[in-house]
DNA sequence: TTCATGATGTTATATTATATCATTTCAGAA
DNA sequence: TTCTGAAATGATATAATATAACATCATGAA
């Protein structure tokens, strides 16, 4: 219950009455600026603009949807433009790609950008409302690491995407 | 150690000296026949042939690779043919799609086809040798279910694909 | 300034997947 | 057995996602 409340408050801004999305975007962008500055990476105007478009919602967005949004603001833009920006943002861990949806979403855990660039991201994805929330769970991390360890397997990358119905969309 | 040995013996036929792949294919096909018969589903010659092609290796195969293999045996065949066969096989849980690779692999757990059609499949994928092994782990299942349960989330589908280096490919 | 590097623009194309409608096959009803 | 409706397959076209290759531009260091 308490966990569920946290889940809504922190991760589910659309269901949380108090969510101020414009400040949410601003803080994501500010965090990205800081992260890139610290690393000596360049968050160029284009990359920043794409990140802003990704953050328009807390739902996954397709590359070609982003392309269309970018075209609204910049006139004709070709696919490589958006894909290169997304590649950079994913490399920096500022955006994640959801393989099961072939779509992209802003990273919900900006705090984790220091040590690890593209940290492991685990998602719950609601098939009804489209919301995708990034989860952190020690037990899950432990299970994955344990499983891999026992197999002598060294993890490079994790795709963990659980689809179904969120609490709000049941019934 | 014991776990790792099991992992190799059961799941990693290329590393297991005793692996008889032709009998492995036969048992996969026999199992599929039995499963479909029990359900009143039709494992047609085409579907059976596609399943056989999927089982040529224990590595993920792209739909268009399968299409090419099928064309070698049948002359000109169009994409919908292979996709429809794969859709059927995935629905029956005889094949899994690896979202992180956009590829398909034979299901390594034929025993689980009774209750659940497309059961949850969790993979370790070696980026070096390309081997993908389907894992079953109670702790992992527990962690996922616990996480979802606490969020009030009802699971419909799981994509869990851990990429990295298998024991044989380290160093 | 000049140069080297990385970022972006531009064109073309690769890769993966599906919509649509025609035709065939097959199991069960008559 | 033949008929028939549903499912499976064939065939054509196209959608959706992504990358290769090369030209141009911007930026910062020497």
Structure description:
By secondary structure, the first copy, chain A, is of the alpha+beta class. Chain A has a single domain (2-169), classed as Winged helix-like DNA-binding domain superfamily/Winged helix DNA-binding domain (Arc Repressor Mutant, subunit A). In chain A, 45% of the residues lie in helices and 18% in strands. Chain A has helices at 2-11, 21-39, 45-54, 63-74, 79-91, 138-150; strands at residues 95-98, 103-106, 121-126, 132-135, 154-165. In chain A, the strands form two sheets. Chain A has a three-stranded mixed β-sheet, covered by helices on one side. In chain A, strands 1-2 form a two-stranded antiparallel ribbon. In chain A, strand 3 (121-126) and strand 4 form a beta hairpin. The first copy, chain A, is globular. At the A-B interface, helix 1, strand 3, helix 6 and strand 5 of A face helix 1, strand 3, helix 6 and strand 5 of B. Strand 5 of chain A pairs antiparallel with strand 5 of chain B. The structure holds a DNA duplex (30 and 30 nucleotides).
């Amino acid at each position: 219950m308490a966990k569920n409340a946290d889940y809504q408050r922190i991760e589910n801004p659309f269901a949380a009455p108090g969510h101020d999305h414009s400040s949410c975007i601003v803080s994501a962008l500010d965090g990205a600026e800081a992260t890139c500055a610290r690393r000596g990476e360049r968050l160029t105007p284009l990359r920043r603009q794409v990140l802003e478009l990704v953050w328009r919602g807390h739902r996954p967005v397709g590359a070609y949807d982003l392309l269309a949004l970018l075209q609204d603001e910049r006139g004709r833009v070709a696919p490589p433009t958006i894909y290169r920006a997304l590649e950079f943002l994913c490399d920096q861990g500022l955006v994640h790609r959801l393989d099961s949806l072939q779509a992209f979403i802003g990273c919900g855990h900006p705090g984790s950008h220091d040590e690890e660039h593209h940290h492991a991201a685990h998602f719950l994805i609601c098939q009804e409302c489209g919301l995708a929330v990034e989860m952190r769970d020690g037990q899950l991390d432990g299970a994955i690491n344990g499983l891999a360890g026992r197999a002598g397997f060294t993890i490079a990358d994790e795709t963990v995407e659980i689809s179904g119905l969120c609490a709000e969309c049941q019934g």
